[in-house]
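The material for today's practical consists of a large collection of protein records. There is nothing in a record beyond a sequence line and a structure line. Backbone structure tokens are a discrete shorthand for how the chain folds in space. Nothing more is needed to start thinking about how sequence determines fold. As an example, a complete record with its sequence and its structure tokens follows.
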Amino acid sequence: MNGKSMWRTILVALPLMLLLGCTDYGKVDQGRVVKFDPATRTMTFIRDKANDTQNPDYTYLPPITYVLPTDPAENGPDPKAGGRMKIDNKKNQITIYDPATQNFKTIDFVMVDFKENIDKNHPLVYDKEADKAKKFPVVDKDKKTVTIYSGRQKTLSVIQLPEEYFAMPESTWDAGDEARVYYKEDGKALRYMNITKTNIFKK
């Protein structure tokens, strides 16, 4: 390429480069859902600071609220909200999000029963005859226990909690769905994906 050809190429490409440089491509945010209002299509989640679905870090406050898109083509399945951020079966501690204080609370528990290597098709958590997952958490107010299944950790834990916590809704002990949004304007999602309920490998 001679000098004139080179400069001609640069001059042709320059407007396109400037245009691309000024384009707002938007941002992506994701977290665990703690509140969802289907009437207003608003979703609140605790942002995943690690941005890693296998090793998430749900410690970001305050919670983030987004209005979901109105276009069905830009929406995933409605999210399930839950208060459980983390269960540590070694330290016997569970961390929840308390909407009353808008903060996290770490609670010590007594481990009543614990099983590992429980995948999502295990008979303890999946009803083969009905062809559907069993409902968790299971709250027993008489025994003051909560049975929690963690699909990510593949653990089934029966934990005993202080009586005061059984006044809280059952969703407190459930993990909300993981959601991802694409946005340009704060608080307004242009696209929404339910990571928990979406099989990206399904054809």
Observations:
- DSSP finds one helix and 14 strands in the chain.
